[in-house]
Specification:
Its cofactor is K(+). Exhibits a very high intrinsic GTPase hydrolysis rate. Involved in the addition of a carboxymethylaminomethyl (cmnm) group at the wobble position (U34) of certain tRNAs, forming tRNA-cmnm(5)s(2)U34. Belongs to the TRAFAC class TrmE-Era-EngA-EngB-Septin-like GTPase superfamily. TrmE GTPase family. By secondary structure, this protein is of the alpha/beta class. The protein folds into three domains: 115 residues, Gyrase A, domain 2 (2-Layer Sandwich); 130 residues, Four Helix Bundle (Hemerythrin (Met), subunit A) (Up-down Bundle), CATH 1.20.120.430; 153 residues, P-loop containing nucleotide triphosphate hydrolases (Rossmann fold, 3-Layer(aba) Sandwich), CATH 3.40.50.300. It has 14 helices and 13 strands. It has a seven-stranded mixed beta sheet, covered by helices on one side. The chain has a six-stranded mixed beta sheet with strand order 9-10-8-11-12-13, sandwiched between helices. Strand 9 and strand 10 form a beta hairpin. Helix 3 packs antiparallel against helix 4, helix 6 runs antiparallel to helix 13 and helix 12 packs antiparallel against helix 13. The longest helix is centred in the middle third of the chain and has 37 residues. It binds guanosine-5'-diphosphate. Guanosine-5'-diphosphate binds next to helix 8.
Length: 455
């Protein structure tokens, strides 16, 4: 294991709470904490057995008590970072927590950088990069399904799959090398055939992994849906009706602007960001213009557009302008207010799939939810044992796939095995980027810098 200095940070959210946890990691963590921690039964913390909890007080050098605490000691390598880790449970709230942390710093630890604990777990070989990235996905999970997918990844399911493919490629490379070392033409031909066959199997495997990424991305990051329709068709009523049963628990709702309202839904585990747009009416009013521009950009970014029409009013210019604007997009059209007398005629406009709803009494909303599941998940929403949820992983897989394909094509066309080996080697490297085996230090640093402090 590499030797690092000892770091400390608050691992819990800062604010009023019952307890806070301060995490200390590194060779000197036990020694540092023993300088400021007085155990109730007067024993020395240096003598504390691993994986036990001690009760006592954090004290200043002048003997004054800072806080009453519980302190646990995890001896490396059986700890989160694979180093010696000490966790101090102190009282929650900013003052208690920061006072304790300050004493830890005075005793010799330095402040941890964002993601540094998880980074050490990676650098010390306890987890690979895709598992480390899953830690942040767990923390940021938007629904139970996002959480499940992140847990599977942190448990190493995806890594195991990648490792198996990588090992197979390494075997093929070794096989090619032996052949090239004994150049008899027959041998080169039969080896080529065998490698090509094995590559077909591997390409299929990688192809199905890549295919999980579309659903995987939605499970991790969510779908974004924009509701659009002229004023008074029932957009906000619809949003409220959907939210009543399906509101998702989210910690950070980005700013709701005056003209755009965003909320999070949880539909069978799919995290959905739903935006009620202000409309796209042509206008000379400067303020209104800003709202329209914002609405348009929300509509342009959305994965799906839910277009709302009012069944109790005839189609008019404003509806038609919207239809024109969204005609090439993935849309679901809702004919709202079907509880009222019907006056709407679609006049031959192609609006894709239409669903009759009433935001007032909830009629048709289940059909809308089923439609969303069908459009993005073929009807069945589930987290597979392993799926690619991270864009970085998907991109590495695509590049690896391309190189494997190039190698197979070269072999099938009778081009020398030497050249195919170059492509295979490149694909082996791309697979390694997912697990972090072949990623440059700079990129690794960048990935961890997106974490928050204390993780
Ligand atoms: P928005 O401007 O598109 O957001 O429309 P609102 O949600 O504010 O709705 C406009 C009006 O239509 C309100 O008075 C709602 O109560 C009414 N409304 C919305 N949905 C329905 C519906 O399904 N049936 C009926 N009868 N009225 C509705």
């Amino acid at each position: 294991m590499r030797a690092y200095d000892t770091i400390a940070a608050i691992s819990t959210a800062v604010g009023e709470s019952g307890v806070s946890i301060i995490k200390v990691s590194g060779d000197r963590s036990k020694e540092i904490v023993s300088k400021i921690f007085r155990i109730k039964n007067k024993t020395d913390f240096m003598e504390a057995a691993p994986w036990t909890i001690q009760y006592g007080h954090i004290i200043r050098p002048d003997g004054e008590i800072v806080d009453e605490v519980l302190v646990s000691f995890f001896q490396g390598p059986k700890s989160f970072t694979a180093e010696d880790v000490v966790e101090i449970n102190c009282h929650g709230g900013r003052v208690a927590t920061e006072s304790v942390l300050n004493e830890v710093f005075h005793a010799g630890a330095r402040p941890a950088e964002p993601g540094e604990f998880t980074k050490r777990a990676f650098l010390n070989g306890r987890i690979d990069l895709s598992q480390a990235e899953a830690v942040i996905d767990i923390i940021q999970a938007k629904t139970d399904l996002s959480m499940k997918a992140a847990l599977e990844q942190s448990g190493g399911k995806l890594s195991a799959e990648i490792k198996e493919i990588r090992d197979s490629i390494l075997n093929l490379l070794a096989f090619i090398e032996v052949t090239v070392d004994f150049p008899e033409e027959d041998l080169e031909f039969t080896t080529g055939q065998e490698v090509s066959e094995k590559l077909s199997g591997l390409l299929q495997k990688v192809g199905s992994l890549i295919r999980t990424s579309e659903e995987g991305k939605i499970i991790r990051d969510g779908l974004s849906i924009a509701i659009i329709g002229k004023p008074n068709v029932g957009k906000s009523s619809l949003m409220n009706a959907l939210l009543k049963e399906n509101r998702a628990i989210v910690t950070d709702i980005p700013g709701t602007t005056r003209d755009i309202i965003e909320e999070y839904l949880n539909i069978d585990g799919i995290p959905i960001k739903i935006t009620d747009t202000a409309g796209i009416r042509e206008t000379d009013d400067v303020v209104e213009r800003i709202g329209v521009d914002r609405s348009k950009s929300k509509i342009d970014e959305a994965d799906l557009i839910v277009f709302v029409l009012d069944s109790s009013r005839p189609l008019d210019r404003e509806d038609i302008d919207i239809i024109e604007y969204i005609k090439d997009r993935k849309i679901v059209t809702l004919i709202n207010k079907v509880d009222l007398e019907e006056k709407l005629k679609l006049d031959g406009y192609d609006l894709g799939e239409t669903i009759q709803v009433s935001a007032l009494n909830g009629y048709g909303l289940n059909e809308l939810k089923d439609k969303i599941k069908q459009l993005f998940f073929h009807g069945q929403v589930e987290a597979k044992d392993y799926m690619v949820t991270n864009r970085r992983h998907k991109e590495a897989l695509m590049r690896a796939n391309e190189k494997m394909y190039a190698a197979k094509t070269a072999i099938d066309q009778g081009i020398s095995l030497d050249l195919a080996a170059i492509d295979l080697n490149a694909s082996w490297n791309y697979f390694g980027e997912i697990t972090g085996d072949t990623l440059s230090e700079d990129l690794v640093d960048k990935i961890f810098s997106d974490f928050c402090i204390g993780k």
